[in-house]
Amino acid sequence: MGDTLLPAIGTEILIPACSLVAIAFALLQWLIVSRVKLSPGGLDSAGANSGSGKNGYAEYLIEEEDGLNDHSVVLKCADIQNAIAEGFSGATSFLFTEYRYVGIFMVAFAALIFLFLGSVEGFGTSSQPCKYDPTKLCKPALATAIFSTISFMLGAVTSVVSGFLGMKIATYANARTTLEARKGVGKAFIIAFRSGAVMGFLLAANGLLVLYITINLFKLYYGDDWGGLFESITGYGLGGSSMALFGRVGGGIYTKAADVGADLVGKVERNIPEDDPRNPAVIADNVGDNVGDIAGMGSDLFGSYAESTCAALVVASISSFGINHEFTAMLYPLIVSSVGILVCLITTLFATDFFEIKDVKEIEPALKRQLIISTILMTVGVAIVSWIALPSSFTIFNFGTQKVVKNWQVALCVAVGLWAGLIIGFVTEYYTSNAYSPVQDVADSCRTGAATNVIFGLALGYKSVIIPIFAIAVGIYVSFSFAAMYGIAMAALGMLSTIATGLAIDAYGPISDNAGGIAEMAGMSHRIRERTDALDAAGNTTAAIGKGFAIGSAALVSLALFGAYVSRAGISTVDVLSPKVFIGLLVGAMLPYWFSAMTMKSVGSAALKMVEEVRRQFNTIPGLMEGTAKPDYATCVKISTDASIKEMIPPGALVMLTPLIVGILFGVETLSGVLAGSLVSGVQIAISASNTGGAWDNAKKYIEAGASEHARTLGPKGSDPHKAAVIGDTIGDPLKDTSGPSLNILIKLMAVESLVFARFFATHGGLLFKI
């Protein structure tokens, strides 16, 4: 077995040190972004709007555009940014409203965790024989109940903070990106990317630091009972993902209701440009980018990260690491994440400092380079970490037996996940970027109307599932062969080890999208809009890559959690031929469809109200089309807010209540079938929905940009093929930004919830079969 090269004290220094380095780096990036002032000549009023308050000692903006040396443009940008971020109905006020409702649910669910887990041993306070080693005494179930509830609350709060910080940074950076676009596309790219990096590094550091501190505090009580300690830590992943679900669904409904309403009336019926200030839904649309794509995605990736770490820790705690109390080897998943932060830091410098972007064509390659560099560096990092932080040979718990594993095999598991993530990312890019033939074919199909566009788009989405599924399948087989369920959990963590870079690339998209909207609303020249559109088109593809990563890692995470659940519930084998399991499989495979139906319908009904409201304003407000009257933005924002708060509850309840109902009424075996079924069907639907929506969006942008001869034959804006492309894009909106991304939370959340309640289900579940 042997000791690790890295002593325990080294681990205790390394993990918090890397977290603090990430926070410092994020603050440095934020400081650089804040140097772009939203105040011409240090005017106090604009300073108040920008929220920076540091006026007077920054350089004035160097104007390189003719006729734009105008203070009113800067003031307008500051005003619009303020409306999106803070205004009467901006992103902040929406998130506070959402968190108020979600907070009530959080407290209720925390009480449920305490009651259910405490009742496993009748709320007894005496120590019990350990499940995996009856010769030793472990802490009572009541302790697990209390500490699981605390870690659930901590995970939920960290998830909410992650989403909120991301939203704050994005709304701080959007107008600054617009202003920098006047100097050139390279300057605007760097501001948007730095802002994304602030979010990425803060989130990675938060997740790691809070989990590390929690483990150390819980250790004070649990002492040598590491199985009990890491069982109670699983609540952290449950808290993170349950908040992410409401954030993703609520934010997704908000943003897409506004987007669909703005596009259908503005572009198709009224022939006005995207983000035109005359469109009443335009502010709601830009607010939506921040609450859905930024806050929702931040919470989602945090949830994946927390769960994959928890799954690995649970399996490790009942393996030789936990039995022999090897602290460094036990915290190997956290050490991998710490090294990931350092790798991402070096990778970020390639985008911001080592290479300069001079042309629009260089944007997408620069973002792809981030993925490749981080993957290569992380592969080297994982090899080193595995050598110093793991014994040369050890045993891993494998469904009742202990499997002998070498440290290089675990390193390979992490690397397999890492490279599978890159493959999924590149396949996603191929199917959603307008630089390649699949999206160009979809754009070409618009010549004969919206129907052929929809048919081509759906076919593309289904086809795009093939290679990612093979990549996930190979990853699962290889990692399970090497290190059982621990290997799969580490492969998932490998995919998420470069989370800081992934999030920076992902958050860059909505920031660029907002920047384009602000340029249009502030009345800036079409040359500026062309630059922000180029940034946005690259951002669309990278957002699709980010979703690919999230879905791929969700598949691995939920399988690892499934393995941990089966071990915890005391199931020796999951027999598909058993009727109890098979009925679970069927029902589980149906759940993603039921969930998607709810979220799609919610977006549809909210968009219906939005379209009617936008039409009403165009028809009844005199001078609106001429630009002499102002639209009523507040009513449109209210429609989105009300719809998302009301409609996020049923899908959330479906996901949260299903494991409880199935576990209590039908027992642990049927629940294992439900988890397997939802994983298998959910991954396929999520990938196809995300890629179909991304392809339709970029097919529309391909026609609008008119960059090639082929694209020019389909355009210009307002032509029949362009209108068909807009219809495809609006159909794809709820697919790629509401249903698709929420599905990966569904499969993870049901698995982690089942794991948390496994002991309760094993003791008191299966009531119907006991009658």
Automatic annotation (TrEMBL):
NCBIfam families: PRK00733.3-5, V_PPase. It is a multi-pass membrane protein. Its EC number is 7.1.3.1. Keywords: Ion transport, Magnesium, Membrane, Translocase, Transmembrane, Transmembrane helix, Transport. InterPro entries: PPase-energised_H-pump. It comes from the Eukaryota. GO terms for molecular function: diphosphate hydrolysis-driven proton transmembrane transporter activity; inorganic diphosphate phosphatase activity. It is found in: Endomembrane system. The keyword Transport applies. It comes from Carya illinoinensis (Pecan). This is H(+)-exporting diphosphatase. GO terms for cellular component: endomembrane system; membrane. The chain crosses the membrane at residues 13-33, 101-120, 140-167, 188-215, 330-351, 371-389, 409-432, 453-478, 484-505, 549-571, 577-595. Coiled coil: none annotated.
